[in-house]
Amino acid sequence: MRIRRALLALCLACGLAATAPATADTPKNMVVMAAMLDEFISLDPAEIYELVPIEYAANVYDRLVRTDPRRPGEILPGLAERWSVADDGRTFTFTLRRGARFHSGREVTAADAAWSLARLVRLNKGPAFLLTQMGFSADNVAERIRATDATTLVLVTGERYAPTFVLNCLGAWAASVLDRELLLANEVNGDLGNAWLKTREAGSGPFRLVALRAGEALTLEAFPGHWQDHPAMRRVVLRHVPEAAAQRLLLEKGDVDIARNLGPDDLAALRANPDVRVRTVPAADLLYLGLNTRHPAFAKPAVREALKWLVDYEGISRHVFRETHVPHQTFLPAGFFGAIDDLPYRFDPSRAKALLAAAGYPDGFSATIDVRKGYPGQDLAQILQANFAQAGVRLELLVADNKQTLTRYRARQHDIYQGYWAPDYIDPHSNAQGFAWSPDNGDASPNRLLAWRNAWDIPDYTRRTEAALAEPDPARRRAAYEALQRDFVRDAPFVILFQKVLTLAERRGVEGFVTGPINDQFFYSEIVKR
């Protein structure tokens, strides 16, 4: 079977090479990446909600401000060269730089920015929550987000929030500034240009769209009129190469400069190749267990802590994940403002047994665990089953597809859920709200995030999460999240296990591909070839 797979991958790679232009040792002014391009549904930033499309928006569009992947929590000027927050904590005033231009040649104005943010709210597609969570609605957005002149935008939030939270949301892909006149010229039946923009662009970013060929390639070219970035690469091409082995072969031949979806075996081989450099980047995805506190055992904090001593974190990392995940036990991933690297738990069955006995379970107990079919879910669950058995905790694996396991989880019908959580945006509130906030634990609650799904009634954590969201001082806000995580890791009904790691392989001499923990911080402007 392995030989057949290898031959298939080889044939696929050869076929790709045969049907594509001869790009071995790709041109000095072009970078080619092997990636997965099967997520593209729309190119409209107000509708995009998939990883590589978000990355596309990060390079084709500008926002008022930018988040810094190198320094978590830092906000950089974007189209706005400066901003201020009034004493009320709700009124933000942005001064836009002069001379920034859309790809159409039009100058970017505050009216374009205000219209773009209002459009996000009015279209009310998935990403609209970035603004609606701050109190903006279709009824009030025209009043609360407005241009007072060509370079001044005033935004008034519904409540007082930490300025860093507001700015992080405005630095996200969905808050991209669009060419208002171009979209209105292509509006159909009041859709604000949405149908037109699904396959086109209206940006001002350092790159502009050349072509997207579904299932084949995305091609961008440098925009010479950009206000700041002057990319060294005239073109950036992302080629759709779904097979990891095919990506590796193309990289080794020089047909691509960067490969992004490689398996552990491919990475091990590439590390020995002097023409290739392999580097790892922490991704924001967290792999965790959710413990439903409606299960009598999981209602007891000592039992929840016992399970954290029953995971062989290092063994699983070595034998299941190798280079693709690293142990991580707190709810903010590395690379986020406020993240801590505490790893208080290790595999210690004796300590777990003592905690279980003190909680009234000297002989352990039984529970089911909902597991997504395939790798890595089943591999991990089988090891956890063996780990937990050492303290008498008997796990029954319920293996199903992702839709089925999520449906049970969202209905609070699980004992243990094994799965991933990925934040929607770079601010720490995205994860704190998910794991440590639940203002209504009732079955009819409108807020059904992770704490609610595990029936964790937490008025104190909810209050602290809301206080951190409103804290205006960055140092105190950071301290609030650090303290929240240290308490959380001890008594929460979550066993956070691993953080995903993105591993890139690049041809020697290819440098400057900036990568943060989320795709919204993948930037092409600094890529060079030595």
TrEMBL record:
Residues spanning the signal sequence: 1-24
An example molecular function term from Gene Ontology annotations: peptide transmembrane transporter activity
Keyword terms, alphabetized: Signal, Transport
Database matches in CDD domains: PBP2_NikA_DppA_OppA_like_7 (cd08512)
Top-level taxon of origin: Bacteria
One Pfam family it belongs to: SBP_bac_5
Principal location class: other
GO biological process, one term: peptide transport
Cellular component per GO, a single term: outer membrane-bounded periplasmic space
Solute-binding protein family domain sequence ranges: 74-436
Record family assignment: Belongs to the bacterial solute-binding protein 5 family.
Protein name: Peptide/nickel transport system substrate-binding protein
